[in-house]
Write a structure and sequence with these properties.
Blueprint (H helix, E strand, L loop, with lengths): L15 H12 L2 H4 L1 H8 L3 H29 L3 H11 L8 H32 L8 H13 L1 H20 L2 H30 L2 H9 L8 H14 L6 H6 L8 H29 L9 H13 L3 H34 L3 H22 L1 H30 L2 H7 L5 H30 L11
Helix pairs in contact: 1-9, 1-13, 1-15, 4-5, 4-11, 4-13, 4-17, 4-19, 5-6, 6-8, 6-15, 6-16, 6-17, 7-14, 8-9, 8-15, 8-16, 9-13, 9-15, 10-13, 11-19, 14-15, 15-16, 16-17, 17-19
Length: about 450
């Protein structure tokens, strides 16, 4: 719990491994299974992945290091950490808007993310029950449409998922979040590798490897760069206050840059390995790689329905996705719970239940209205997350002094520190501004940088 009066938290992660599992778990979400495969498919496969890797380590990693630094320096919630660091830097407290925007984005994401996680939960049980065995693609697609149209069922799955999320967060950093992720994430990695091994022997791994690792840069357009940059930014959980919050529980001995590198690397590896687990079945059953979100809930289940043992392979796959969703959801809820502990008398349990209930209620509204769901998705993805990341980059790069950041990143040698500072001051703001502009253009129906894949 936080020290009374809005002071710095006294809690730290029990182990560095626990922190890394929590941070990687927050980054490894449904986007690695859902958004990454179809975004790669829409943007030329391997060519997109090469550009994506550059974006992760050239732009995403420096922002991630910045967010962890802000959290650890101040040891408060995202809003409190930015405000305190601004005070220490002699800057006006208005800069706390960076924390407010990021926290708002994370909370709103969880409102509809939990609904999608509810769909995933439903598919775990539907697959295990053998409901899809022998179904053709049209019947599987109709089944997904029927699920999303059945409001009562969607709310029931959404409710169950939120209860588990609230329960884990309410138990605390060490007994709840850290204990859960140190069990769930190793299980996730083993299951994902097992899925890839299975694909090697039963599906079209050769074509998947060619698709993922033989780049065709003739497919690249300006839109490919913005798509890769956006995917890298969102996949790493930057701009949503998660890493500021998780960074606040780090000790002074932790090497922030090294930890950030592990987090970025693990998230990237999972995204690519997930592609190796998914695309062999995509090509085996002649599914369009750029099928969009339908790839996840319609095309792949249809493929599993036709293959020997597909009932259990499909169950395995959706269980993997459910673990990824859960480790992300607990980090999103922890952001607002940390803020509540700092500024209210609710305590951890009360904060988790109160704000979890509000998020659940907004999720119910999403279940009733697909338009409202889309509005939240658009606002967070196109406005709040890019703004949160942009504000942090500007704050750390231009407001916080070089000396203060050098103290936070003392393990970096001079060359690497200078490189990080150059990126966070110049490249990162421009790159995130491009994401923001592309998002606004998309909302307005304008092709700002050209259509991907054209």
């Amino acid at each position: 719990m936080a020290v009374s009066g809005g002071g710095a938290t006294t809690v730290t992660w029990a182990t560095r491994f626990g922190f890394l599992m929590a941070a990687i778990g927050s980054s490894v979400g449904l986007g690695n299974f859902w958004r990454f495969p179809y975004t790669a498919g829409e943007n030329g496969g391997a060519a997109f992945i090469v550009i994506y890797l550059v974006c992760v380590f050239a732009i995403g990693l420096p922002i991630l290091i910045s967010e962890l630094s802000v959290g650890r320096h101040s040891r408060r919630s995202a809003v409190g950490s930015v405000r305190q660091m601004a005070f220490d830097a002699g800057a006006p407290p208005i800069w706390s808007v960076a924390g407010w925007v990021a926290m708002a984005g994370g909370v709103l994401i969880l409102c509809f993310y939990s609904v999608v996680a509810g769909w995933v939960s439903a598919y775990v049980f539907r697959m295990a029950s053998g409901e899809f065995v022998g179904m053709d693609a049209a019947s599987v697609a109709d089944g997904f449409t029927a699920l999303t149209a059945d409001t009562n069922q969607v709310i029931a799955w959404h409710t169950g998922f939120m209860i588990v999320t609230i329960g884990i967060v309410a138990m605390g950093i060490k007994a709840g979040i850290e204990r859960a992720v140190t069990i769930l994430m190793p299980m996730f990695f083993v299951m994902l590798l097992a899925m890839v091994v299975y694909a090697v022997f039963t599906a079209d791994m050769g074509q998947a490897l060619e698709y993922l690792f033989a780049p065709d840069f003739s497919e690249v357009t300006p839109g490919t760069f913005t798509a890769a940059l956006g995917q890298a930014f969102f996949s790493m959980s930057v701009g949503s206050a998660i890493m500021i919050t998780y960074g606040s529980y780090l000790s002074r001995k932790d090497n922030l840059a090294a930890s950030a590198g592990i987090i970025a690397g693990a998230d990237t590896v999972v995204a690519i390995v997930a592609g190796l687990a998914i695309f062999p079945f995509v090509f085996l059953f002649a599914i369009e790689p750029a099928a969009g979100p339908a790839l996840f809930f319609q095309a792949l289940p249809a493929a599993f329905a036709q293959m020997p043992g597909g009932q259990w392979v499909g169950t395995f796959f959706f269980l993997l996705a459910l673990i990824a969703a859960l480790t992300s959801s607990i980090s999103l809820l922890q952001v607002i719970v940390a803020f509540s502990e700092e500024h209210t008398d609710f305590g951890r349990v009360g904060s988790a239940v109160f704000f979890g209930a509000i998020i659940w209620l907004v999720g119910v509204a999403c279940a009733f209205s697909g338009d409202f769901f889309d509005v939240l998705d658009t606002i967070t993805g196109n406005i709040l997350l890019p703004l949160g990341g942009l504000f942090i980059a500007l704050f750390v790069g231009w407001v916080v002094s070089r000396e203060l950041m050098r103290h936070e990143l003392m393990q970096l040698n001079g060359t690497l520190f200078n490189a990080w500072r150059f990126v966070i001051r110049y490249l990162a703001p421009v790159a995130v501004a491009l994401i923001f502009l592309a998002g606004l253009a998309e909302m307005a129906g304008i092709e700002l940088f050209g259509s991907p894949g054209e």
